[in-house]
Amino acid sequence: MNQHSISVLVGDGEHKVTSNADRSLHRIITEDTDTVIDAPCGGKGKCGKCKLIVESGKVSEITDQERRLLSEHELERGVRLACLTYPRGDVEVRIRENSRAHIMVSGVEYDAEVLPNVRKTHVVLEKPDLADQRDDFTRLKDALGGANYHMPLKELYQLPATLRMDNYSVTAVHDRNYIITVETGDTTGKNYGIAVDIGTTTVVAYLIDLNTGKTLDAASGLNTQKSHGQDVISRINYTLQHDGGIEHLRKRIINQINSMIWDLSENSKIAIENIYSIALAGNTTMMHLAAGLPPGNIATVPFIPVAQNRMTFLADDLGFGIPKGASAYLLPSISGYVGADIVAATLSSGLYFGDAFSLLIDIGTNGEIVLGNRDGLLCCSTAAGPAFEGATIKHGVGGITGAINSVKLEDQKITYTTITDSRPVGICGSGIVDVMALLLQCGAVDDTGRMLGKDELSENSSCDIAPYLTESDDQPAVTLVDGAQTENGEAMLLTQKDVREIQLAKASIAAGIMTLVKRSGKQIQDIDVVYLAGGFGSFIDKKSAVRIGLIPAVLEDKIQVIGNAAGTGAVLSLISEACIAECDRIAKNAEYVELSSSPEFQDEYVNNMFFPIDD
Ligand code: FES
User: Fold this and answer.
1) Cα(first)–Cα(last) distance of the chain, in Å?
2) Which of 3, 74, 250, 472 has CB 3.0 to 4.6 Å from 292, enough for a Cys bridge?
3) Contacting residues for 113 by C-beta, under 8 A, at least 6 apart
4) Closest Cα to atom 1, ligand 1: which residue?
5) 0.85 exceeded by the pTM?
């Protein structure tokens, strides 16, 4: 079969690959390049987000589905959907630069005793002579003060030379009794680790000084597995439907983390040889994919992971490019859908050791919720879907440059802000919540979620939103930005269908909260503090969240934003062995509530489907 040359242009960069004509551009881009392309439905031709522009060359005919999902304006500009387009010769395509994502890196302040698992001990060994013929390893173990030390064979090979290089002055790098490596001289001042929060959408890596506990630098990017679907189910399906799918996704995330480690090391002028430990937090599926474990059973009843306890491996075995003996550990998960990221967030919020009755909400591609205090924890995961990450919203985008992140009606005009004040490219979660709140406030959406026509608006409404009401694909919609102001010249709308998606997502999270409250035997007003974690939670307007019924009104003044709490938890586990033990305790003791079989959840879901009516 003829091979075609495919050029993929991203910003100033170009990736060149060859392919035959029977693979879609989506497959070619995701399988043969490291480029990330939006593909919430995982390449099934349903979401309409995998847009690219064919700059030159011949491709397959436009499909009916593309005509449904793309506007005329887009089709005229050569926009196509990558998963429905096949090369028919040499082609050049351009995709949007996804790496301009604005990712929440910072988390809560922490104050933990710095006592990491991985420590360095400098010793000067007694020199051997005829009266003291102890072997090299015993001599080292004796100097370290214990007989139980062990080390990998590869390190043992180096030991004789290392000991003799600086007159028996060496530094042992050890994870408890396991000697990771032995270095010549006193290197105790250089002890570093990497903590990683692997989100389904974004990945953040932190470079940590294990002597001081300080975060030296952080790197972030969109999860490069994103091209295989927005949510964990799409990723799992990919592993089930493609031979080598697990390995492909594993390599994508490990390569991404390795390149982050290289960047962090270069920027901080810290040698990769001095990074001895890596801690990973993420949802249960992300943990499976990082370790190359088959996640298939998480997707089907009764949702069973391969392993959910904390797991420690040699970093080298997982493919990390740090010293071969270094350890990599995956923090424990609670269930198939409440993962190590929530355990880490619970750790960093501190809610598990205080008396305050606390609620932790992390809204990402799922909405995970933890409720309780030192007396016990309940948790659940709501299948909120990725509406708040923009995936199921017509003009929704993640938190990227140009995303509309806040919306208001000022002087009867819709005003908005965008990330980095760039031209609007779409609307992200916090903007979506604001628009929804605005539509409710102006009476343009009723409590059932129906969008009203212009002639149905109340004359008594305090805001005049009528000029913005329009139609799209025969359904009511509101215009947020007209075409003259957008990057692609197309008006940006929120449609009736979008409102339904938001309604389902907010009902799911609100019902999850109420189900846990009921299970706890307490009342919603008994909650003392609400921690909002994650990027979306950090930017959301609290009033808007309450206005749409995402969070009960009684909790509005109790909300505290804690940023990337999962990342902070991963850092804490790296610098404190006590915190690792706490993670294990949280994962073991938290009671998981399965919502899919919970009658309370079903009732609450129906109750919360309505939007609150303004008083
Ligand atoms: S339509 Fe192509 S990935 Fe969804």
Assistant:
1) 67
2) 250
3) 576, 578
4) 45
5) yes
